[in-house]
Design goal:
6-stranded antiparallel beta sheet, alpha+beta, 31% helix, 8 strands, 245 residues, 22% strand
Length: 245
């Protein structure tokens, strides 16, 4: 092994020496390398053309979709029931929910029960949209309350008491009324506060063991969040595509 190492070193030394000799040219041939340069006639005649330049200013970052659903100043897309709850069915994975009655009002308190109506009114609720979905004996009404700022929506959630009033009709009987125990949720995203009230269409009280009620309610909560977020993404994309003023 030692002999092999010495041999390798020697070979490398020989290669280097050969390279030095070749690069330096032979005796009496100082122009050996110079002869490989292009002739003066082959060189570009005009060397005054400017070199390409690149802007040192970084492009602006893309708009934040959250900004477009946090304030009425930027969130200008139409607010409609069909815009938030399109079609006749809602599919979440392998679960399909049938849409029932829908409604929209600027008198937000009329779609609530208990103290929630006063909370919405005091915080400046501009519109309340509701839709009911049903699946195998379970019905859930989801409502979206619209405010002019994110701060008002958050404050509403912090102060929330009572709950959303269920919306019957279109194949769904009256449910979650008259003191029936039902499941209620409260959330907000951007300038929207959203609520659910869900239970059994036969009036059976809801317990923590009733996973079907929880599953439908969770599906609607997740769907509304996605719809609000998508609203911001669409408006942000439109703003990015507009020419700079």
């Amino acid at each position: 092994m030692i002999g092999g190492g010495v041999l390798a070193t020697a070979l490398v030394g020989a290669i280097v020496a050969t390279a030095v000799v070749t690069t330096g040219g032979g005796k009496g041939d100082p122009g050996n390398n110079a002869s490989k340069l292009p002739a003066p006639a082959d060189l570009p005649e005009d060397t005054s053309a400017p070199a390409p330049s690149f802007s040192s200013v970084a492009p602006p970052p893309p708009p934040d979709p959250k900004e477009y659903i946090s304030s009425a100043d930027k969130d200008r897309a139409p607010i409609t029931v069909d815009g938030f709850f399109p079609g006749e069915k809602l599919a979440m994975g392998d679960r399909v929910h049938i849409k029932g009655a829908t409604g929209s009002t600027t008198d937000c308190a009329t779609g609530t029960q208990g103290a929630l109506g006063a909370v919405l009114k005091n915080n400046g609720c501009e519109q309340l949209i509701r839709a009911t979905y049903r699946k195998e004996g379970v019905a859930v009404t989801v409502g979206i309350a619209v405010f002019d700022t994110e701060a008002r929506a958050k404050k509403t959630v912090d102060q929330a008491s009572g709950g959303l009033a269920s919306l019957s009709g279109a194949g769904v009987p009256t449910f979650c009324r008259g003191g029936t125990v039902c499941r209620r949720t409260t959330n907000s995203y951007g300038r929207y506060a959203y609520f659910t009230v869900g239970g059994f269409t036969d009036g059976t009280r809801v317990t923590t063991q009733d996973k079907d009620v929880f599953a439908v309610g969770d599906d609607l909560t997740n769907f509304v969040f996605r719809q609000i977020r998508q609203r911001g993404q669409v408006q942000a994309s439109q703003a990015a595509a507009e020419p700079a003023q």
